[in-house]
């Protein structure tokens, strides 16, 4: 008897285990076939690589069923849209038989229209997110969506997903900015939806000035920006508002899931990515640095990011205004995400991606609209403005990576430079050292500079001696003895390099034949100081007449402040 019972228990256990495996196997299959384009990396020439580099459906923990966010039905739905007739709205402008479904919007319009105004999507968050709680009292937000000739179905789904998947009390209003789309009716009709206001530009302004217009009319204390072809996911808004409420200098983004431009499948993006760029100011998704990844014990924690993709973020309104909104001399599309990101970090704020907030976005391979000044020139103008205002001496790498930018018009940046001074923002070098140390400075042709301290210049004397002396000559006419080339990690003068004589504090610094493998010759900037990499000690003049030594780094001490000035 006992044996039969034991067998029965064993059989049941095996069946249970097999059942669980079957369920998990089912669960790990994507809901629909990912589009062929979903994993393609795609630069768009001047702009961004648009798709998060690695896509994955979340499988980290499969012990609870996935919750699919359902659209509301009946009554509730009517309340959401008020008197707005969505059927009539969507029925016009449908694709005619034989039309290329990609032509007008660079995504498959037929598939988008087929989905209609709403649909259930997979809750793509890590399962732990569902059990997080947020303050009962969170401030409400103004949602700002700018659009230029957006498809009706994608735009309506964006709006409706916001109304369906946000706590009602958090949505103060949805502000649409119609950036001079061909048909003014979209704007008028959508204004019938409760909470929706639509402002139409009387000429094409581009997304940057359009967003500023939206922000200026917003009545909530928190701004939320969205593209016009998004679908927000379960509880997307609370985590972002919570973080901004706790610290108004934070600017936060969700993880941006991918809506396939071919079949409109909603695909989870990797939760291990952050925003980065190369020196040509080309945006890219990149892996979180390994040390940070190892330190992340909690997958719900925010991810610090050097830059944001640009389209989807939440920011305190007074902080947005305090920091100078956007550079409104940037046109149409591109570059504003770098400008905003540099400004936020360098002027006292921070940028983060919140894994518990997810928003889907239709990533495209080309721009479906025209650029009145041309795509390339516009991108160059915008990124040049960002580089000229914010990148200090590092802008040289931007120009080397994008030589065609030299000599192209970018307008006056005087106002933005004044803003930077007024806000007392940190130098780009600070950003490089503290926010984005992973961005490698390219092997460069040596640039000549002087190393100035309190108006005096560092110079070589005799065979291997060094000292401070009055600066002589001007520009490139400086005497050789005062011209330095800073090619990390070396500080060189022709074939001689700055080297320490021993690794202890007080050791003299001298010149010797360059050898980039020699640890005694390795230096790196540390704020205004020059730090010897291995000893961690800083170049110190002690007194203007004495010898040069290495000493404990004390930032702010005059004898350790070396301002390199590039000679042109
Ligand atoms: O002239 C224009 N006027 C507009 O109102 C051009 C565009 N727009 C609207 C447009 O309808 C859309 O709603 O502006 C929004 C963004 O334009 P997209 O969708 O063509 O841009 P994108 O998704 O290709 O590009 C990303 O980078 C842009 C740089 O300027 C903006 O910051 C976009 O908001 C941004 N999108 C995202 O961050 C979503 C995630 C994509 C990534 C990476
Ligand atoms: Mn977009």
Automatic annotation (TrEMBL):
<keyword id="KW-0464">Manganese</keyword>
<keyword id="KW-0472">Membrane</keyword>
<feature type="domain" description="Ricin B lectin">
    <location>
        <begin position="444"/>
        <end position="565"/>
    </location>
</feature>
<keyword id="KW-0479">Metal-binding</keyword>
<dbReference type="GO" id="GO:0046872">
    <property type="term" value="F:metal ion binding"/>
</dbReference>
<keyword id="KW-0812">Transmembrane</keyword>
<feature type="transmembrane region" description="Helical">
    <location>
        <begin position="7"/>
        <end position="25"/>
    </location>
</feature>
<comment type="similarity">
    <text>Belongs to the glycosyltransferase 2 family. GalNAc-T subfamily.</text>
</comment>
<keyword id="KW-1133">Transmembrane helix</keyword>
<dbReference type="GO" id="GO:0000139">
    <property type="term" value="C:Golgi membrane"/>
</dbReference>
<feature type="region of interest" description="Disordered">
    <location>
        <begin position="32"/>
        <end position="51"/>
    </location>
</feature>
<dbReference type="InterPro" id="IPR029044">
    <property type="entry name" value="Nucleotide-diphossugar_trans"/>
</dbReference>
<dbReference type="InterPro" id="IPR045885">
    <property type="entry name" value="GalNAc-T"/>
</dbReference>
<comment type="function">
    <text>Catalyzes the initial reaction in O-linked oligosaccharide biosynthesis, the transfer of an N-acetyl-D-galactosamine residue to a serine or threonine residue on the protein receptor.</text>
</comment>
<dbReference type="InterPro" id="IPR035992">
    <property type="entry name" value="Ricin_B-like_lectins"/>
</dbReference>
<keyword id="KW-0735">Signal-anchor</keyword>
<comment type="pathway">
    <text>Protein modification; protein glycosylation.</text>
</comment>
<keyword id="KW-1015">Disulfide bond</keyword>
<keyword id="KW-0328">Glycosyltransferase</keyword>
<keyword id="KW-0808">Transferase</keyword>
<dbReference type="GO" id="GO:0004653">
    <property type="term" value="F:polypeptide N-acetylgalactosaminyltransferase activity"/>
</dbReference>
<protein>
    <recommendedName>
        <fullName>Polypeptide N-acetylgalactosaminyltransferase</fullName>
        <ecNumber>2.4.1.-</ecNumber>
    </recommendedName>
</protein>
<dbReference type="GO" id="GO:0006493">
    <property type="term" value="P:protein O-linked glycosylation"/>
</dbReference>
<keyword id="KW-0333">Golgi apparatus</keyword>
<keyword id="KW-0430">Lectin</keyword>
<dbReference type="GO" id="GO:0030246">
    <property type="term" value="F:carbohydrate binding"/>
</dbReference>
<dbReference type="InterPro" id="IPR000772">
    <property type="entry name" value="Ricin_B_lectin"/>
</dbReference>
<dbReference type="Pfam" id="PF00652">
    <property type="entry name" value="Ricin_B_lectin"/>
</dbReference>
<dbReference type="Pfam" id="PF00535">
    <property type="entry name" value="Glycos_transf_2"/>
</dbReference>
<dbReference type="InterPro" id="IPR001173">
    <property type="entry name" value="Glyco_trans_2-like"/>
</dbReference>
């Amino acid at each position: 008897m006992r044996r039969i019972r034991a067998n029965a228990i064993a059989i049941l256990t095996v069946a249970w285990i097999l059942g669980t495996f079957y369920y998990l196997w089912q669960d790990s299959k994507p809901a629909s076939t990912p589009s062929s384009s979903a994993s393609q990396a795609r630069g768009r020439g001047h702009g961004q690589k648009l798709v998060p580099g690695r896509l994955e459906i979340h499988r980290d923990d499969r012990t609870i069923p996935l919750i699919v966010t359902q659209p509301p039905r009946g009554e509730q739905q009517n309340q959401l849209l008020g008197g707005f007739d969505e059927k009539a709205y969507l029925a016009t402008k449908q694709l005619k038989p034989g039309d290329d479904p990609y032509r007008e919007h660079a995504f498959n319009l037929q598939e988008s229209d087929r989905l209609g105004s709403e649909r259930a999507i997979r809750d793509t968050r890590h399962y732990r997110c569902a059990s997080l709680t947020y303050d009962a009292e969170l401030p409400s937000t103004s949602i700002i969506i700018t659009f230029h000739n957006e498809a009706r179905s994608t735009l309506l789904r964006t709006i409706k997903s916001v109304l369906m998947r946000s706590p009602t009390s958090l949505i103060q209003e949805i502000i649409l900015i119609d950036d001079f789309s061909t048909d003014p009716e979209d704007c008028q009709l959508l204004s019938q939806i409760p909470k929706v206001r639509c402002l139409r530009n009387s000429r094409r302004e581009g997304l940057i000035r359009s967003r500023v217009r939206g922000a200026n009319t917003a009545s909530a204390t928190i701004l939320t920006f969205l593209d016009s072809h998004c679908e927000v996911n379960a509880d997307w808004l609370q985590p972002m508002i919570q973080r901004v409420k706790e610290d108004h200098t934070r600017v936060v983004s969700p993880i941006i899931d991918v809506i396939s431009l071919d079949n409109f499948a909603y695909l989870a993006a990797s939760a291990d990515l952050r925003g980065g760029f190369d020196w040509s100011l080309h945006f890219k998704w990149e892996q979180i640095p390994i040390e940070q990844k190892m330190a992340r014990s909690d997958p719900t924690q925010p991810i610090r990011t050097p830059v944001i993709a640009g389209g989807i973020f939440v920011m305190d309104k007074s902080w947005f205004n305090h920091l100078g909104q956007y550079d409104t001399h940037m046109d149409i599309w591109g570059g504003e995400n770098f400008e905003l990101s540099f400004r936020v970090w360098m002027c006292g704020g921070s940028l983060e991606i919140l894994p518990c907030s997810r928003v889907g976005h239709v990533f495209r391979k080309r721009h479906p609209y025209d650029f009145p000044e041309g795509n390339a020139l516009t991108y160059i103008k915008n990124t040049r403005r960002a580089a000229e205002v914010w990148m200090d001496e590092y802008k040289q790498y931007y120009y080397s990576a994008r030589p065609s930018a030299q000599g192209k018009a970018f307008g006056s940046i005087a106002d933005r430079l004044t803003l930077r001074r007024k806000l007392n923002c940190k130098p780009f070098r600070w950003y490089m050292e503290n926010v984005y140390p992973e961005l490698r400075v390219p092997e460069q042709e040596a640039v000549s500079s002087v190393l100035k301290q309190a108006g005096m210049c560092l110079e070589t004397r005799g065979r291997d001696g060094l000292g401070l002396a009055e600066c002589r000559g001007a520009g490139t006419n400086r005497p050789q003895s005062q011209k330095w080339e800073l090619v990390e990690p070396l500080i060189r003068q022709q074939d001689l390099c700055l080297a320490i004589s021993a690794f202890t504090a007080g050791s003299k610094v001298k010149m010797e034949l360059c050898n980039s493998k020699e640890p005694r010759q390795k230096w790196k900037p540390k704020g205004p100081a020059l730090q010897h990499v291995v000893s961690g000690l800083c170049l110190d003049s002690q007194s203007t007449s004495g010898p040069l030594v290495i000493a404990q780094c004390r930032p702010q001490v005059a004898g350790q402040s070396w301002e390199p000035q590039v000679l042109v």
